[in-house]
């Protein structure tokens, strides 16, 4: 199903009458982060507007896709949902090259998942050049131990975008993907979008 992303600017909005067009560009997002932070739940909420209380481990990585209209282009959104367990870390570098965004998810009720953000960012920087990194704090509906100001300050120091969501109650999930889509605007207009070749060590 083709999704039309809505923006406040007429320049950004692409009408549904383009829905018969074939995908012209690829938009790749890779999700990283510790286990049980809600990576899969965020993707499921965005794709299907569903949420499950039951936790299921991601083995290796799961691939999903969705098409949307943006700036009069049909974009094929590809999402890689990677496992957070250490035993799968060696597999992650194969998914990172040519990513338009890397999303690192942490649980605002779990300080360890927050402290590990820096390790994940270092891991990404060792695999690809100049990544666009979004750090996402999930589970904001619960009693949090990481407040917004602390997370925002750390991400500012690390040079990353910061966003907060609740996958469970569908708070700011759609907005997260809208913000990432907007970040493609300059790349599309410059002709660089979907043409990254940024792997530091090609596998």
From TrEMBL:
Note whether DNA repair occurs among the keywords. no
Could you tell me which PROSITE patterns the record lists for this protein?
RAB (PS51419), RAS (PS51421), RHO (PS51420)
Q: Does the keyword DNA damage apply?
A: no
Q: What SMART domains does its record include?
A: RAB, RAN, RAS, RHO
- Keywords, in A-Z order: GTP-binding, Nucleotide-binding
A GO MF term: GTPase activity
InterPro entries this protein is in?
Answer: P-loop_NTPase, Rab, Small_GTP-bd, Small_GTPase
Pfam families in alphabetical order:
Ras
What this protein is called in its record is Uncharacterized protein
Query: Species lineage, top-down?
Result: Eukaryota, Sar, Alveolata, Ciliophora, Postciliodesmatophora
């Amino acid at each position: 199903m083709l999704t039309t992303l809505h923006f406040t600017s007429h320049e950004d909005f692409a009408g549904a009458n383009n829905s018969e067009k074939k995908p012209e560009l690829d938009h790749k997002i890779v999700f990283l982060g510790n286990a049980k932070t809600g990576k899969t739940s965020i993707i499921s909420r965005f794709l299907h507007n569903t949420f499950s209380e039951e936790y299921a481990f991601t083995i290796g990585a799961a691939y999903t896709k969705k098409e949307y209209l943006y700036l009069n282009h049909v974009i094929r959104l590809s999402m890689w949902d990677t496992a957070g367990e250490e035993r799968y870390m060696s597999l992650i570098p194969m998914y990172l090259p040519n990513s338009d965004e890397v999303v690192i998810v942490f649980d605002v009720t779990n300080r360890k998942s927050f402290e590990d953000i820096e390790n994940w960012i270092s891991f990404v920087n060792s695999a690809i050049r100049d990544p666009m990194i979004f750090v996402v704090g999930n589970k904001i509906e619960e009693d949090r131990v990481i407040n917004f100001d602390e997370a925002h300050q750390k991400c500012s120091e690390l040079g990353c975008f910061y966003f907060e969501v609740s996958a469970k109650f569908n708070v700011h999930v759609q907005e997260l993907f809208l913000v990432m889509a907007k970040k493609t605007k300059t790349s599309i207009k410059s002709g660089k979008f979907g043409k990254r070749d940024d792997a530091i060590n090609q596998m």
